User: Which sequence fits this backbone?
């Protein structure tokens, strides 16, 4: 009976040391995807990077600047205004 208890405790400790790193690795993948979405980047791609590289991907996306989309000014007629003066036709 004592032998069964030792095997069960060894299995529980082994599961503990295997499960926590896997949970943390997957959490890094989700946080990488979330941060990528917040910075205007593709969340799914960064989730895949997070699954493959874990904390390294999280540090990488944390260090990247946000992607800024250029905003075009719109004239009153709904056409893009490229810095030219409006003219009457």
Assistant:
């Amino acid at each position: 009976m004592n032998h069964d208890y030792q095997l069960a405790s060894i299995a529980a400790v082994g599961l503990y040391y295997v499960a926590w790193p896997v949970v943390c690795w997957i959490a890094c993948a989700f946080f990488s995807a979330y941060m990528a979405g917040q910075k205007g980047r593709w969340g799914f791609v960064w989730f895949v990077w997070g699954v493959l590289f874990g904390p390294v991907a999280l540090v990488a996306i944390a260090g990247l600047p946000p992607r800024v989309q250029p905003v075009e000014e719109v004239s009153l007629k709904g056409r893009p205004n490229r810095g030219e003066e409006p003219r009457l036709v």
